[in-house]
Amino acid sequence: MDVEIHHTIESVPREEWDRVVEESPHGSVFHRYHWLAAVERGCERTGRYVVVSDGDAPTGVLAAAVDDVPLTPFERLCSPEPGFGGPVVADDEEETLDALLDAAERICEDGVVAHVFRTLDEETVRYQRRLRERGYSQTVASCRFVVDVTDGWDAVYGRMSSSRRRAIRSGHKNDVHVRDEVPDRSDLRAFHRGYRRVMDRVDGDAYPRSFFERLRTMDDRVRQFSLEVDGEPAGSILVLVDDEQSTVQYFFSAVEREHFEYNASELLHEHAIRWSIDNDYRQYDFGETSPDFRDGLFRFKERFGGRAVPTLSWERGCAPVRWNAFRLGRHLYQTANRLREERT
Q: What is the Cα–Cα distance from 229 to 285, expressed in whole angstroms?
């Protein structure tokens, strides 16, 4: 097996990389070249990209980012953010998987304390035993609510909670129109302004405008759904069209507080789900949320009737001294946070 480690996605032949993603059962839109380029350049991530080949034919790829670990002097090798990661294997499964993990170990020799990655496709659980043999431990990082849309809108609507169906019916009492399109640079800039206000409202960290502008290179893999009420804008969402997983991935929202009275989120998701059905996709994915039934976002997404799918995360320490120091510091930090929460 031949192994190449690149420090930028731009040095990797796009057609070869995307061919592996398309041929692997575990590839997704988040593994594609243009998504990784948008993350690397738009979010200024330090990337590492592994290509494993058998002769002239690539058989596997692995994308990762080298990030600082907050409040520590350490770095870690992790999944590109935003998005998902992990090994993507198209052929010679066992040998290719080991070659990708060997390459990750070599990258970690450069002062990186750990390798951690999150996977999108739940079928990658097939690698769990081999990953444990290689020193990785598994946790549930988050969960996603995934709606099966193969049996049509009426069935999807019937599986929703009564409160969600009522919100959709109430929203349609207004003069509403939903426009869907492949956004251009101007659309993405305007979307980002609303998205930033949403993230400010929830005290979240917004991705930069430069990242959204680079999404235009993904062409029809990105779609924007925008609501108008009485001819006036009333919020929008961005979804990713994941042909590899036959899924429409909801990912970003620009639905602001003043749009809530129109049930804007419910109407936009209704339209995006109908679009998924009309275009023969299997699933509509509401994206990540905390795996906590008490969380408001968890309950909001749950009421659309989807199946809760755990997002699995694997982690492996890369050097005993650095890894043990990091684990001790993380334990002390988590303990201090827990005690602080108990006092409040």
A: 26
